[in-house]
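Deliverable D4.2, example record:
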Amino acid sequence: MIQAVVSAVVRHLVAATVVLGAGAGAHAAEKVIYMNDWLPGGDKAIPFYALEKGLFAAEGLDVTIQSARGSSEVVTRIATGTADVGSGGLAAFLQAKAQGDVPVTVVASAFPVQPDATFTVEGSGVTSLKDLVGKKVATATFTSSNVIWPLILANNGIDEKKITLIKVDPAALVPMLATGQVDATINWTTASPPFVRALNETGKKLKMLPWSEYGYDGYGYSVFASNKAIKERPEVVRKVVKAWLKAAQMALADPKDVARSMKVQFPEMDAKLVEEQFLTIVPLLDNAITKAEGLGTLEPKRLATTWEWTAKSQNIPLDKVDPEKTVDRSFLQ
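Output generated by the structure prediction step:
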């Protein structure tokens, strides 16, 4: 399945430019490279949905979507100029800012509720984070959740050294949990559908321990842009944000169309699974916070809380980064 999706991504990169060029005027369209933080799927569908629905083209943009293997890679790609915009976990971005003031800026939020969680199996004896002591836990090498892991344990009175953490390729997480190679995995709640299916095949049932239930607050998934793009092509960044937010609203209104859209772009995909994946992000996009403040907003207090979690988890002085200087809200207007 993963290999099929990767092959489809390669074809997609070629086709996207052709389609968008035809729809928006090949000579006038502004070329943009968008770096998604994971392989295509229902939970990562919004930029692809914007692409297929012609929202980028309507803004005069010729967008190529590429896939990274985690939020840290997204930030690196944007910082080094191999991508113009992208999306990923805010914690990984803030950590990168603290380490080297990378030339990247947050231009919109997507999830004002944290999606991080620990996955395990019903009946495994793991019913809370404290039960992970003495257990093996697998995590993707570059996931933004790794930034918060030490602190979520410390805040719940758990000694990090008493848990064996194994960093692997993200594609290995599902089979490792399903076959019992590890006792738990670190994932976003949005990654649950493939786990549910794989475990069902072995007569097992997935159990999720959302970190938000253990005190983890703040912004999760966010949209980033390179400082170079913001300085030299601010209108392009504004149009990307506009199309992204419009795609999110359209997707929330019609999850089945999201599945249809992804199936069109990636024929190898299982449309039912794509819809299941998308439905996992609905509570993260559509909740009391977004209803009150609006999708995409970056509320100062919540932003500061996100930085506090990040800083404390990595023993970074709080004054190392002013979170307000890492965002640009002008593209939301």
